[in-house]
Each structure stands twice: as structure tokens, then as C-alpha cells.
Amino acid sequence: MTIKIANLTLQKTKSLFFKEKCTQLRKFCIRAPYNVLFFGSDVIGLNSLRKINYLRKSETIIKRLDLVTANSSKNKSIIEKFAEKEDIRVLTWPNLNIHEAEYDIGLIVAFGHLIKKDVLDKFPLGMVNVHPSLLPRWRGAAPIIHTLLHGDEVAGVSLMKIKADKFDVR
Fold first, then answer.
1. Exposure string (b/e) for 130-148, b if CB count within 10 Å is 16 or more?
2. What distance in Å separates the CA atoms of residue 18 and residue 24, rounded to the nearest whole number?
3. Cβ distance 97 to 122 under 8 Å?
4. pLDDT of the residue at 15
5. Number of H helices and number of E strands within the chain?
6. How is residue 51 annotated by DSSP?
7. Res 137: pLDDT
8. Which of 35, 68, 102, 135 is the most interior residue, by most CB within 10 Å?
9. Cα–chain-centroid distance for residue 10?
10. Main-chain dihedrals φ then ψ at residue 136, nearest 5 degrees
11. CB 79, CB 53: distance < 8 Å
12. 3-state secondary structure of 107
């Protein structure tokens, strides 16, 4: 028997270790499509939102995708305009009014606001932050600019599970 998980294919074996891992994977990977709440505010966030929206439309991985922005202006940001065009519901930070387990996971890309424990606890799978630097060197705002200004020869992207009340920690 072959089990397909996203882009991974696993061959079933008689190994007890595999059976335990497979049981754990079934809980989170082989299930109904995910409900995702995306936190983002700028062009970096927009590029990631486009890809996730593509997966929502073309695959069975994502069932629901909503966006959180921190734009308090009357003028819509580029990411909000995209969301409106793609029928993605927009929530405004910090007044989310979401229920526990309404979304499976939160994805953060270029959002710039501290996530409090009460928000983090509403996501059964937690929250993941995509930070455009190799942490911890350029933690915080404008990591790409700092990388360029300091002439770093190596750059990258860090993925981290969010910890309540802390910025950019691995």
C-alpha cells in the first residue's frame, strides 16, 4: 500500500516505528483539507499568498483561506486588493474575532506584529512564520535591506514555529 501525503509518498512496511509515525501523520496530513489563516501586509506576503491561493484552487490541500492585515488606512493595500479579487475574506488586526480551531494553522509572512498567546492557542497546528533572513543575524524588521547594506554573501529564508509573545525565534 502507498500513502500519499502532499508531495511525499511513503511505502507501508511492517515496521512498528513506521506504524506509529503513520498514525501520527494521519491525524494531521491525511485528513480533510486545511483551513488556513494567512497573516501578511506587503509584497513579500503577497507572493506567498498567491502561491497558497493557487494551492487552494488547484489542489485538495486547502479548503479555506482567509487573510489578516494590519492596514488601518481607508486605502486598500496591494495584498488586500488581491484578496478581494480572489474572494479571500480579509480580517483586520488586532480585531480578529476568530474561534478556537476555526482554522487549523496560521501562516505568517511579513506581518510585523507580535502574536499573543490567546491568538496562538486558537490554532490546533500552531502558527508558522516565514522570515526573509537566516536567523538570528537579521531578526526583526527589514532583514533584506540589512543583508544588502552589510554585504552579506549568504542569504536565505527561515521557517519557524511561532512562540507566543516573541519575535523571530528559532
1. bbbbebeebeeeebeeebe
2. 10
3. no
4. 39
5. 5, 8
6. H
7. 60
8. 68
9. 25
10. -95, 5
11. no
12. strand
**Residue with C-alpha cell 511579513?**
110
At residue 7, the 3 state secondary structure works out as coil
Q: Which amino acid is at 134?
A: L
Burial 71-90 (b: 16+ CB within 10 A, else e): eeeeeebebbebbeeeebeb
Distance CA 158, CA 169 (A): 10
- pTM of the shown model: 0.72
Over its length of 170 residues, how does the chain's per-residue pLDDT go in tens digits? 444 444 443 444 433 344 444 444 545 555 678 999 999 988 888 999 999 999 899 878 899 999 999 877 788 889 999 999 999 999 998 888 899 999 999 999 988 788 889 999 999 999 998 876 665 565 666 666 666 676 777 666 777 787 776 554 55
Burial (CB count within 10 angstroms: exposed 0-12, middle 13-18, buried 19+), residue 70: middle
| Coil, helix or strand at residue 77 | coil
- Compute, in degrees rounded to 10, the torsion defined by CA atoms 59, 61, 66, 71: -80
What is the distance between the alpha carbons of residues 19 and 29, in angstroms, rounded to a whole number?
Answer: 15
> Among 72, 64, 161, 157, which Cα is nearest to 120's?
161
